[in-house]
């Protein structure tokens, strides 16, 4: 088994009309044994920027702590929040720094720029960025997530429709992956508000 699949995970970020959604499953497992059913994979950097970390859970938590530290230093020096593009470059640099003993994580970054334009990207464990204009996925359920997202995505969705689309894609995909699941955690972010919702899924 790959070390990336050890804890199981499913992550997805999708853009809408001046908004974005980022969603994850809630299962923390050790291979096929479920350890927790309320594990947090999505972290808030600031009100308009979120990061999801799939892969090895311990590395994800360590990486997040280092990113918080770097972001706070940036806020103190610049007296403003980091733009999503800048933050993606920071994450990429941090991962590449450790390329000979990498963090076993696949980050998914989603944010709104100053012009309220959604930005999403993902990268591999050594920081090679993959930018997208529709959706990005990561984790053990990524194959079925690609299929579900391709089927349901359409451009310029309003926040409520975007929530529905992301939720359906996530729930139907984790049903096809035994290492992720146990409900979902969805954030829908618009220029004025952040909506957080918990989804109930199959509990097996």
From TrEMBL:
GO annotation, biological process: proteasome-mediated ubiquitin-dependent protein catabolic process
Pfam families: Proteasome
Coiled coil residues, start to end: none
Domain of life of the organism encoding this protein: Eukaryota
Subcellular location: Cytoplasm; Nucleus
GO cellular component: cytoplasm; nucleus; proteasome core complex, beta-subunit complex
Keyword hit for Repressor: no
Sorted UniProt keywords: Cytoplasm, Nucleus, Proteasome
Record CDD domains: proteasome_beta_type_3
Predominant subcellular localization, coarse grouping: cytoplasm
Protein function: Component of the proteasome, a multicatalytic proteinase complex which is characterized by its ability to cleave peptides with Arg, Phe, Tyr, Leu, and Glu adjacent to the leaving group at neutral or slightly basic pH. The proteasome has an ATP-dependent proteolytic activity. Non-catalytic component of the proteasome, a multicatalytic proteinase complex which is characterized by its ability to cleave peptides with Arg, Phe, Tyr, Leu, and Glu adjacent to the leaving group at neutral or slightly basic pH. The proteasome has an ATP-dependent proteolytic activity.
Family statement: Belongs to the peptidase T1B family.
Subunit structure comment from the entry: Component of the 20S core complex of the 26S proteasome. The 26S proteasome is composed of a core protease (CP), known as the 20S proteasome, capped at one or both ends by the 19S regulatory particle (RP/PA700). The 20S proteasome core is composed of 28 subunits that are arranged in four stacked rings, resulting in a barrel-shaped structure. The two end rings are each formed by seven alpha subunits, and the two central rings are each formed by seven beta subunits. The catalytic chamber with the active sites is on the inside of the barrel.
Protein name: Proteasome subunit beta
Species, as recorded: Hevea brasiliensis (Para rubber tree)
Gene that specifies this protein: PBC2
């Amino acid at each position: 088994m790959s070390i990336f699949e050890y804890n199981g995970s499913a992550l997805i970020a999708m853009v809408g009309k001046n908004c974005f959604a980022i969603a994850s499953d809630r299962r923390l497992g050790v291979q096929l044994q479920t350890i927790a059913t309320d594990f947090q994979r999505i972290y808030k950097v600031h009100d308009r920027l979120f990061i999801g970390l799939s892969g090895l859970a311990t590395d994800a938590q360590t990486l997040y702590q280092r990113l918080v530290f770097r972001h706070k230093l940036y806020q103190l020096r610049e007296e403003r929040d980091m733009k999503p593009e800048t933050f993606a470059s920071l994450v990429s640099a941090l991962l590449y720094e450790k390329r000979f003993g990498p963090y076993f994580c696949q980050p998914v970054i989603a944010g709104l720029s100053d012009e309220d334009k959604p930005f999403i990207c993902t990268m591999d464990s050594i920081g090679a960025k993959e930018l997208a204009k529709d959706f990005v996925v990561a984790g053990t359920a990524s194959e079925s997530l690609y299929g579900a997202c391709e089927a349901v995505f359409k451009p310029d969705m309003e926040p409520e429709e975007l929530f529905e689309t992301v939720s359906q894609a996530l729930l139907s995909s984790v049903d096809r992956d035994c290492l992720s699941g146990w409900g979902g955690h969805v954030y829908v972010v618009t220029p004025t508000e952040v909506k957080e919702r918990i989804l109930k899924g199959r509990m097996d």
